[in-house]
Amino acid sequence: MRWNLGCLVCVGILVLASIASVKHLEAQKSSEDRAQILQLERDWTQSFVAMDVAANQRIVADDFFGTEPDGKRIKKADILEEVKTGEALLSNHLNEDDVTIRFYGETAVVNGSESWKRKSDGKTGKWIWTDLFVKRAGKWQVVASQDLEVLDK
Q1: For residue range 52-69, what is the model confidence (pLDDT) as tens digits?
Q2: Pairing with 78, which of 14, 18, 84, 121 sits 20 to 30 Å away (CA)?
Q3: What are 83-142's pLDDT values in tens digits?
């Protein structure tokens, strides 16, 4: 009886150690993924200042489907065309203290905001948004987004 109880205790300790190890690896993975997604959000925000097509090719998934502040539905091709022919922003700042990233396996929901200024007329504004990222073949890409312009009252 003592030997069996001792084995059960050892097995219990091994199980707890394994769980702790898995949790540590998940936290480490989550931290790395969080850093990658935050960098992608920074890059995507700046791509509309630099009108960077390559950044959008990398960040936006081929099956992307989004909603702009005016309700217009857009796909990746629409974003690429806007970056190629549209007007660059003078500045676009990711409000990093307002970014929340939640993971659901290989999917991440990102909520945040950015403050921008247009080149043409100097108008400033703020967007709040939700982006949906999926990790495929080891890399994160945005598959959906919804933006809302915050209007001054």
Answers
A1: 999 999 999 999 999 999
A2: 121
A3: 999 989 999 999 999 999 999 999 999 999 999 999 999 999 999 999 999 999 999 999
Q: Per the structure, how many domains does the chain have?
A: 1
The rounded distance, in Å, linking the Cα atoms of 7 and 93 is 58
pLDDT of residue 3: 52
Q: What is the residue-wise DSSP string for the chain?
A: -HHHHHHHHHHHHHHHHHHHHHHHHHHHHHHHHHHHHHHHHHHHHHHHHHT-HHHHHHHEEEEEEEE-TTS-EEEHHHHHHHHHHSPPEEEEEE-GGG-EEEEETTEEEEEEEEEEEETTT--EEEEEEEEEEEEETTEEEEEEEEEEEEPP-
Q: What is the CATH number of the domain that holds 12?
A: 3.10.450.50
pLDDT of residue 12: 57
Measured CA distances, 130 to 12, 26, 88, 111 (Å):
42, 24, 22, 5
